[in-house]
């Protein structure tokens, strides 16, 4: 077996692990079920990637987000490590090829969504995959007490039963003690190996600022704090408006939300990471899988839905270990708006049933069919055709997901894909016969690797620029080549997807347990209440509040949050008042030389004594003569 540190140095270029990582790697290599809790930016991926590379076989990684899977696969491939992702955006042909490559192609990592584990093709190929370990990313999703519960995660336990000797590592950046226990139970842990790094971020200064003029305060923050920043807002419209206002005030800013095309997202991310854009204004769609170390401030203009979400978003600041600021701007009305948002996210049972029927009819899914099938979710079209509000459709889908009927996947990160169906010799003959396609085919081969083996992501705009042709012309040629069966071209879709995690049933049999609905709503309300308490708190250190929420105790005050700074100012002011009274009492008897007066208060900080004398002089309560004699006015 290759030593873990040798793997770390070879593929990542690091000589040493970060604190906590090496112990986690050792536990996994010892074949023990392991739960790793590391804060955002704490290096969770290395904790399963290194042990997977240190042993034979394939590491199966279960992850809920396409964007996260694609980012990790891309990063591994860049390091010369063979990795594959099977997502809801893939058709049956792509999936078949992906499994074939993983079985026969010496791949080390296979990323799948939890929904894909339930499909017939996955179960059919499972025992041919030579799985050495299972990694469950975002493991809090398995717990109903977690802030992003996904019922499909509960199926991982069945996977464990099929692979009883395969160890599992579960990873998350935020979990309360209740969720930690729940994760281990739901994943059928054989060992109680829990590694929890402190979530404390000493370099991150938490500030809650009551503010009526939030935009004015935001300008002030951007002007006072140098470096790049992230501003989080609740809706898409607000991202555009806020970015425009910042730009008008000379601050290079851009907006980011889930409704943007994949190309736009990537361009905006790249500009921000390269410091071409200083501030990115975003919804909570921004940040997952993006590791920019030198973010100096993260500002929330609206209250987040939970402290877990806030902790992760705020934690994107200061990953380089230098001082960064997490600022929450708060108005009293924000609390009511958050409560209303929670209320809207739980539609009535009738609305949910109507949405289920509307989606199924729109996607032409027959009763008794649909299991494992993925469809584009066109919210606007469904809302318009069936006279439903888009928010009702979206929130109904999220509830249907929690009840195990559907799964929602934000698919706008998916790029277009190409797979060459001809071998090299046939391709050469084709180019001779059809020379007008030669430039496109040669450009594909020059710019992308693995085209003969698997579906490979391509960027039509970049490719068109290199070929000096219009993107539309390139897409037309790729479509022609697809029809001629030279290659398979799958254009990207900007729409999210839904996956049927159970066959469609008749609406009259669509059953929801009222206690489940009530429980989920109660948990959401409790999380919102915790956020409101955090925003309104004026006496307890912000750092202690957040860490106590994650069950960390015996934490000292941070000394630099808004509460701690106010406490210091109050203590300073109180000490100055006390000193002033004592100085006036001394001078009441007779005047003193300045040096003599200062020396009388040797038990106090000299700086404070001088400050107190100066304040008394400025207030015209004492006089300091040219001879440095101090007397009462």
Task: Give the integer mean of the pLDDT values.
Answer: 89
**Which structural class is indicated by helix and strand composition?**
alpha/beta
CATH class descriptor of the largest domain = Alpha Beta
The CATH architecture assignment of the largest domain turns out to be 3-Layer(aba) Sandwich
Strand content: 15-25%
CATH fold-level label of the largest domain: Rossmann fold
Low-confidence stretches: none
What does the radius of gyration come to? 30 Å
How many runs of DSSP E, i.e. beta strands?
Answer: 22
For the sheet with most strands, the description reads: 7 strands, parallel
Helical element count?
A: 25
Q: Spell out the CATH superfamily of the largest domain.
A: P-loop containing nucleotide triphosphate hydrolases
Number of domains: 5
Strand order of the largest sheet: 3-4-2-5-6-1-7
User: What is the straight-line distance between the termini?
Assistant: 84 Å
Q: Helical proportion? A: 40-55%
Question: What does the overall shape look like?
Answer: elongated
Could you characterize the architecture of this molecule?
- Helix 14 crosses helix 16, helix 19 crosses helix 20 and helix 23 crosses helix 25.
- The strands form five sheets. A seven-stranded parallel beta sheet has the order 3-4-2-5-6-1-7, with helices on both faces.
- The protein is elongated.
- The chain contains 25 helices and 22 strands.
- Helix 5 links the parallel strand 3 and strand 4.
- The protein is α/β, with parallel strands linked by helices and 633 residues long.
- It folds into five domains: 193 residues, P-loop containing nucleotide triphosphate hydrolases (Rossmann fold, 3-Layer(aba) Sandwich), CATH 3.40.50; 152 residues, P-loop containing nucleotide triphosphate hydrolases (Rossmann fold, 3-Layer(aba) Sandwich); 91 residues, Winged helix-like DNA-binding domain superfamily/Winged helix DNA-binding domain (Arc Repressor Mutant, subunit A), CATH 1.10.10; 75 residues; 71 residues, Orthogonal Bundle (Arc Repressor Mutant, subunit A), CATH 1.10.10.
- The longest helix is centred in the last third of the chain and has 28 residues.
- The mean pLDDT is 89.
């Amino acid at each position: 077996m290759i030593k873990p540190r040798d793997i770390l140095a070879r593929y990542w270029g690091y000589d040493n692990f970060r604190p906590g990582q090496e112990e986690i790697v050792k536990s996994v290599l010892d074949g023990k079920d392991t739960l790793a809790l590391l804060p955002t930016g704490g290096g969770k991926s290395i904790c399963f990637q290194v042990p997977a590379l240190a042993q034979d076989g394939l590491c199966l990684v279960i992850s809920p987000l396409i964007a996260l899977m694609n980012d990790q696969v891309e990063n591994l491939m860049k390091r010369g490590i063979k990795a594959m992702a099977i997502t809801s955006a893939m058709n049956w042909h792509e999936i078949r090829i992906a499994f074939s490559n993983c079985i026969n192609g010496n791949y080390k990592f296979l990323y799948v969504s939890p929904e894909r584990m339930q499909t017939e093709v996955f179960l059919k190929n499972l025992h041919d995959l030579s799985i050495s370990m299972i990694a469950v990313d975002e493991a809090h999703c398995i717990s109903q007490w977690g802030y992003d519960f996904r019922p499909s995660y509960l199926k991982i336990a069945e996977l464990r039963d099929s692979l009883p000797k395969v160890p599992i590592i579960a990873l998350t950046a935020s979990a309360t003690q209740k969720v930690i226990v729940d994760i281990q139970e739901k994943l059928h842990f054989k060992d109680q190996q829990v590694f929890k790094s402190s979530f404390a971020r000493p370099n991150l200064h938490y500030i809650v600022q009551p503010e009526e003029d939030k935009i004015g305060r935001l300008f002030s923050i951007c002007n006072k704090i140098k470096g790049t920043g992230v501003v989080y807002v609740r809706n898409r419209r607000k991202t555009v408006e806020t970015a425009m206002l910042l730009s008008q005030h000379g601050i290079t800013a851009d907006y980011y939300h889930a409704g943007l095309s994949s190309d736009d997202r990537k361009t905006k991310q790249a500009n921000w990471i390269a410091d071409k854009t200083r501030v990115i204004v975003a919804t909570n769609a921004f940040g997952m899988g993006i590791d920019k170390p030198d973010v100096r401030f993260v500002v929330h203009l609206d209250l987040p839905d939970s402290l877990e979400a806030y902790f992760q978003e705020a934690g994107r600041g200061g990953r380089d270990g230098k001082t960064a600021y997490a600022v929450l701007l708060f108005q009293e009305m924000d609390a009511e708006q958050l409560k209303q948002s929670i209320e809207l996210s739980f539609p009535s049972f009738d609305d949910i049933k109507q949405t289920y029927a509307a989606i199924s009819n729109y996607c032409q899914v027959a009763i008794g069919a649909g299991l494992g099938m993925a469809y584009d979710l066109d919210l606007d079209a469904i809302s318009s055709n069936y006279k439903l509000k888009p928010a009702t459709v979206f929130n109904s889908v999220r509830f249907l997901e929690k009840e195990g009927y559907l799964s929602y996947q934000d698919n706008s990160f998916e790029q277009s894909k190409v797979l060459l169906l001809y071998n090299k010799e046939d391709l050469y003959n084709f180019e001779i016969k059809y020379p007008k396609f030669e430039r496109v085919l040669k450009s594909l081969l020059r710019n992308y690797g693995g085209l003969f083996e698997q579906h490979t992501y391509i960027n039509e705009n970049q490719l068109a620029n290199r070929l000096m042709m219009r993107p539309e012309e390139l897409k037309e040629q790729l479509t022609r080549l697809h029809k001629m069966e030279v290659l398979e071209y799958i254009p990207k879709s900007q729409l999210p997807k839904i996956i049927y995690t159970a066959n469609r049933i008749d609406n009259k049999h669509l059953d929801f347990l009222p206690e489940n609905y009530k429980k989920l709503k109660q948990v959401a309300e409790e999380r919102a209440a915790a956020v409101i308490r955090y925003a309104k708190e004026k006496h307890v250190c912000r750092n202690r509040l957040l860490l106590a929420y994650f069950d960390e105790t015996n934490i000292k005050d941070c000394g630099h949050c808004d509460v701690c700074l106010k406490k210091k100012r109050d203590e300073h002011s109180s000490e100055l008042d006390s000193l002033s009274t004592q100085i006036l009492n001394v001078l009441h008897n007779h005047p003193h030389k300045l040096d003599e007066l200062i020396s009388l208060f040797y038990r106090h900080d000299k700086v404070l004594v001088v400050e107190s004398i100066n304040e008394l002089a400025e207030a015209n309560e004492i006089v300091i003569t040219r001879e440095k004699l101090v007397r009462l006015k």
